[in-house]
Amino acid sequence: MSQFRLKKLDLGGFVNTRILRDHTKRRTFEQFEPERQALRYTIRNTSLPQRVRAQAQLQLANMHSNTRSTQIKNRCVEGGTARSVIRAFRLGRYQFRMQALAGELPGVRKASW
Q1: Are residues 30 and 58 part of one domain?
Q2: 7 in Cβ contact with 20 (< 8 Å)
Q3: Residue 80 placed within a domain
Q4: pTM of the shown model
Q5: At residue 70, what are phi and psi to the nearest 5 degrees?
């Protein structure tokens, strides 16, 4: 039996390592965003001494990369794919089509004219 156990997360559909990694990146970003904003404000504030601004710049550079917003990628919550994700539903193109045809998405129906 392994010493390490995975934490049970309620992330929705299919869970793979990419989805778990994306989930942890989103949580880390959310946790450190106020601190990053404060450091950015300190760096841009020209009324502060140059030494304080340089220290803030160094602290910001030394923060973990997962605290940046650019590390977060939109992924399908059902399949985990990163391509052709519809942001409003956080679903990939194929999953969106399947759920829309099944009538599982509110306000979405197949067009006919």
Answers
A1: yes
A2: no
A3: yes
A4: 0.70
A5: -75, -15
